[in-house]
Amino acid sequence: MRFYVTTPIYYVNAEPHLGHAYTTIAADILARFHRQKGDDVFFLTGTDEHGNKIAQAAADRGVTPRQHVDELAAKFKDLTRRLNVTNDFFIRTTDPEHERYVQAFVEKLRAAGDIEKRAYGGLYCTACEGFWYERELVDGKCPDHGIEPTWLEEENYYFKLSAYQDRLSALFRAAPGWVRPKSRYNEALSFIEQGLEDISISRSTLKWGIPVPWDQEQVVYVWIDALVNYLSALTYARPGEDLSRYWPATVHLMAKEILKFHAVIWPAMLMSAGYDLPESEFIHGFLLMGGEKMSKTRGNVLDPFAVMDTYGIDALRYYLFREISFGQDGVISLEGFEGRYNSELANELGNLVSRTASMIAKYRDGRIPVGDGPQAGELAALAAAGEAMVAACTAHLDAVEISPALESVWEFVRRLNRLVEEEAPWKLAKDEAQAGRLDAVLHSLAAGLRLVALALYPVVPDTALEILRRLGQPHGDGDVLLAGATWHGLAPAAVEQAPPLFPRIENGA
RNA sequence: GGCGGCGUAGCUCAGCUGGUCAGAGCAGCGGAAUCAUAAUCCGCUUGUCGUAGGUUCGAGUCCUACCGCCGCUACCA
């Protein structure tokens, strides 16, 4: 199966922040998971670099737009590296190949008869360089600048979005799962059925953009330029390789504020230009800091980059997707992070790895015992439970249910800790007659931990590979295929004792 | 204004098509254990399931109204 996942391309008018990281990590989780399934994966992210705000941001800094976007794009690229994200390509809308593709794309819209030149009149604020609606004005003045806008007319090219209303409705009705979660599907559908108006796709007052091919006085408006990246990237991401097999995209990931562009305008554009439509879109919520106003002096703010540097990227990846139901808004906080980190990563998972390695070292000279024969009671049920955990996790990730996937892994982690208490290997070790049972228990812990590592790999890849390494198992990115995630896939090997995977966060630190 | 969503233990939240649905985790209290990062395991406590009505043999679960919070209501991504 092929799997093409995208993030939105990020607008480089400001520095990267946690919101960007969140979407990108989500895409990485899905990409890694599908590689584990053996799918043919392509994972795209990048930056959106045209438009007024960019030109303005550059001017504010006293640099050229080109300098500005180069610097910011480098920062976004660096973020993907720090997040340990495995994108296959990083697209920039200022790539010449992309620019040419956009021009060809709007030509297709025009050839389809969906482009029309119209005059647009509106109240224009010279300070914002943008139009306002009358109802948006405060006392007849621009709410941002407090100055009175002037009437201005501009000729722009319009895309006949209204002509696609019925086909978009039909698309939604025919494929209820194509936009998820359901609440977003409803939102987009109701938007469509309230009636669609045509939209302008070009600007004449702007220079930092892609010229309309048949009219050099106009540039293509930014969002059309942006959306097309999902297609254009496939034409040049890997020179010499035909990537067209990845289209249509399997899933577009995004936050809710750009739902309409993706769920309404984008499919209409694709219909017009004659492309297949993306198979699905998944819209997630916003991360809310602390619930109350952010306050640095209060010290309750979660600084993702500080967290990342101090506790590692896996801890942050884990927290974001364990704490928040993916698709909904979620409140995050430093307290919440520390709580999850200590109780789950340090106490439950990290400690399980430590105690397992320690017992194998202490009682079996550091080698995982075979002990795989017939077993009684809980031990007998464990293999099935472990494989069921992997299956549940797989089903959840297939449905983009990341938090429930983690929950299913954690139930099993707790079960392994319980097993240690129930079997009390330190007692078995004192009774030579129990040697076989001790072998079975230690073997089961290793086998169980291996499955935990494989299941956890998409979310916390470094941690997963480290667990495998300590267990003496193959531990490369290519060694985590789900096809091998069986109880009996454990190789007899020497385990390594090492410092805590996740050192506890002590109070006041 | 219109459309939609949310309000469940101190905290964060599960609860699909109505009948073990009154739950989980955290926090708190008590106990066991000592392999381990004083980590782990066992047990216990708290709730008018926003308010008031209604439908039903039976409603967090459906309907109505109300209170509170939030999203969308077109050309900034």
For this entry, give a set of tags.
single chain; alpha/beta; Rossmann fold; Isoleucyl-tRNA Synthetase, Domain 1; four-stranded antiparallel beta sheet; 17 helices; 15% strand; RNA-binding
Structure description:
The chain is 48% helix and 15% strand. It is of the alpha/beta class. The protein folds into two domains: 283 residues, Rossmann fold; 152 residues, Isoleucyl-tRNA Synthetase, Domain 1 (Orthogonal Bundle). The strands form four sheets. Strands 3-2-1-12-13-7 form a six-stranded parallel beta sheet, sandwiched between helices. Strands 5-4-6-8 form a four-stranded antiparallel beta sheet. Strands 9-11-10 form a three-stranded antiparallel beta sheet. α1 links the parallel β1 and β2. The chain is elongated and about 90 Å long. The protein starts with a strand and ends in a 39-residue tail after the last helix.
Low-pLDDT ranges:
291-300
> What would you report as the Rg, rounded to the nearest angstrom?
27 Å
Structural class: alpha/beta
Adjacency order of strands in the biggest sheet: 3-2-1-12-13-7
Beta-sheet strand percentage? 5-15%
On the 0 to 100 scale, the average pLDDT is: 87
Using the coordinates above, name the CATH class of the largest domain: Alpha Beta
How much helicity do the residues have? 40-55%
* CATH structural fold name of the largest domain: Rossmann fold
Number of domains: 2
CATH second-level architecture of the largest domain: 3-Layer(aba) Sandwich
Largest sheet: 6 strands, parallel
| Overall geometry | elongated
CATH H-level superfamily title of the largest domain: HUPs
Distance between the termini: 47 Å
